[in-house]
Each structure stands twice: as C-alpha cells, then as structure tokens.
C-alpha cells in the first residue's frame, strides 16, 4: 500500500492506495480539486465534508452527462443496421406481394377468358387475396414497429 498526500481546495488529505495507482489517484484528486475550486471554499464557510460531497456530486453530474453524450453517439449504429435489415425484408415482402398480385391477375384473366365461374375459382382467388393481405399487413406492422423504436 502507498500513502499519498492530495490537496483539494487548499486542504491536505492523506490517502492510501494500491502500489502503482498513485498517478491515477493524483489525477482523480486533481479533478476533484477542480470541482471544489468552483465552490465558495475560500472563506471556509463550507465544512470539509460538504465541500467533498458537493465536489463529488459535480464530478458525477459531469460524468453522467458524458455517458449520455457517448450513448447518443453510439446509438445511431444500431438503428442503421435495423434499417438495412428492415429494407431487405421490405423488398422481399414487396416481391411477394407483386407475385401474388400477378397470380391474382392471371386467375382473373383466365376467369374472363374461359367464363369459368365456379366455387373453386372463387375460393382460389380469395385464398390468393388473403395471402396478399397477410403479407401487406406484416409489412405494415414492421414499419410501425421500426417507427416506434
């Protein structure tokens, strides 16, 4: 263990730390001293414990602000990846919808050409329509989910 004397707001403190951590402790004490200097400690109206508490809170506030800034910088990376994945899924859904619309048009054309209008043809058209509607609904849900994220 090493003993280091640090100075905060003109007051000396004896602090113990692990061997090799002296420079880190001195650096941390300098940061705390900078915050303490912002307080009105020159008149000694602030008790030592309050001065240390307030200085620590100022440092914690600054650290929290920096963490928020870092999170804001890192945040755009995830939505960009999500957006690329969404766009790929949307293109696949668009292709599926187009194929289903083509199939429906084909069945309707055949119906008009042959004049066949039986239950099986109607059921087939309804099934194709329902499949297309499900694909469109899924696509809309994905868009809404991404918009709310």
From TrEMBL:
InterPro entries named in the record? Cell_div_ZapA-like (IPR007838), Cell_div_ZapA-like_sf (IPR036192), Cell_div_ZapA_N (IPR042233)
| Species the sequence originates in | Amylibacter marinus
Record keywords:
Cell cycle, Cell division, Coiled coil
Gene3D superfamilies in UniProt: Cell division protein ZapA protomer, N-terminal domain (3.30.160.880)
The protein depicted here goes by the name: Cell division protein ZapA
Q: Does the keyword Cell division apply?
A: yes
Residue ranges of coiled coil: 90-142
Q: Which GO BP terms apply?
A: cell division
* One Pfam family matching this protein: ZapA
Q: Which domain of life is it from?
A: Bacteria
């Amino acid at each position: 263990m090493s003993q280091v004397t640090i100075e905060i707001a003109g007051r000396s403190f004896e602090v113990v730390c692990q061997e090799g951590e002296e420079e880190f402790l001195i650096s941390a004490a300098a940061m705390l001293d900078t915050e303490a200097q912002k307080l009105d400690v020159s008149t000694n109206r602030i008790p030592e414990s309050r001065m240390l508490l307030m200085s620590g809170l100022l440092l914690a506030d600054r650290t929290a602000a920096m963490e928020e800034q870092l999170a804001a910088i890192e945040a755009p990376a995830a939505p960009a990846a999500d957006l690329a994945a969404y766009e790929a899924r949307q293109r696949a859904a668009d292709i599926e919808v187009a194929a289903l619309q083509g199939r429906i048009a084909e069945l309707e054309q055949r119906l008009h050409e042959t004049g066949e209008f039986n239950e099986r043809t109607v059921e087939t058209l309804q099934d194709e329509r329902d499949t297309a509607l499900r694909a469109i609904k899924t696509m809309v849900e994905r868009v809404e989910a991404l918009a709310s994220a």
